[in-house]
Amino acid sequence: MKIQAFTKTYGGRRALDVPELELEGGKIYGVIGANGSGKSTFAKVLAGVIPADVPGRKTEKNLSLGYMPQKNYAFRMSVKNNILLANRDPQRAARLMAALGIEHLENKRARLLSGGETARMALARLMMKDFQLLILDEPTASMDMESSLLAEKLMADYCRRSGCALVLITHSLQQAQRMADELLFFHEGKLLERGEKIALLGDPTGPELRRFLDFYGGGPERLPGS
Predict the structure, then answer these.
(1) How many structural domains compose the chain?
(2) 148: domain CATH number?
(3) In the prediction, which pLDDT does 56 show?
(4) Residue 34 near residue 73 (C-beta atoms within 8 A)
(5) Pair (146, 195) in one structural domain
(6) Is the pTM of this model over 0.85?
(7) Could you give the strand order of the β-sheet that contains 190-196, starting from the edge strand earlier in sequence?
(8) Per-residue pLDDT of the chain (226 residues; tens, 9 = 90+)
(9) Do residues 55 and 90 share a domain?
(10) What sign does the dihedral 223-139-113-102 (CA atoms) show?
């Protein structure tokens, strides 16, 4: 699928500048960069939550798109009923809850969940449907390591099974190394580098990515879980 080049400007300041992209179904794209680099703005514009500057539409028409923001919402009902809001398929809901380790919470009031539990519920709710493009903004940020690994396995399985292009915004280089097929590196609102993860992390082209990897301990040979 093709994503048109787009920009986003706030108060006269160019916050985001993205060239035309082509995303391939069945692949996971890890979006990395320092805080304030434009990762979440990229996710929001791509998902249509906030508009890009002209010319407007970023993605192909009639593209089925799913989006999980950083802040997850719990409706005033049980965990199971929250998940079933997306698709009335109890068997699929049961499989997703089991995969994320929250099956024991199915009858609990969703508003009483912890932050990590809410994130797992929201991820299950989103994955009740199949999308062509799935955008996840820091989906495991509030989860512990065990829960994060369960979520990572589910995300990877979902991508391969559905054939979607999965865009994963992450602050964790370790997670990017474990999950991504390709990486997109943002710096000061610009998509500076893109490529297969081992090549990009092992031999970055520009000084910005080199500094980022040095600061965060990156590079495939230094990333745990590789």
Answers:
(1) 2
(2) 3.40.50.300
(3) 54
(4) no
(5) yes
(6) yes
(7) 6-10, 13-18, 190-196, 182-187, 28-32, 165-169, 133-137, 65-68
(8) 999 999 999 988 999 999 999 999 999 999 999 999 999 999 999 999 999 997 655 677 789 999 999 999 999 999 999 999 999 999 999 999 999 999 999 999 999 999 999 999 999 999 999 999 999 999 999 999 999 999 999 999 999 999 999 999 999 999 999 999 999 999 999 999 999 999 999 889 899 999 999 888 644 444 433 3
(9) no
(10) negative
Q: From residue 63, how far is each of 17, 26, 57, 198 by CA, in Å?
A: 22, 15, 12, 30
In what helix (H) or strand (E) does residue 72 lie, and over which residues does it extend?
none
Instruction: Tell me whether residue 218 is exposed, middle or buried, using C-beta atoms within 10 angstroms of its C-beta: 0 to 12, 13 to 18, 19 or more.
Output: buried
Answer left, alpha or beta for residue 188, where phi above 0 means left and psi between -120 and 50 means alpha.
Answer: left
Alpha-carbon distance of 33 to 176, in angstroms, equals: 11
Give the domain range for residue 17: 1-64+130-226
Q: Which two tokens stand for residue 165?
A: 């292009």
Distance CA 106, CA 94 (A): 9
Domain boundary among the residues 114, 129, 144 is at 129
Q: Distance from CA of residue 211 to its chain's centroid? A: 24
Residues 86 and 111 reside in one and the same domain: yes
Which one-letter amino acid corresponds to residue 151? Answer: A
Tell me, what's the pLDDT at 207? Answer: 95
| Domain end point (choices 91, 114, 129) | 129
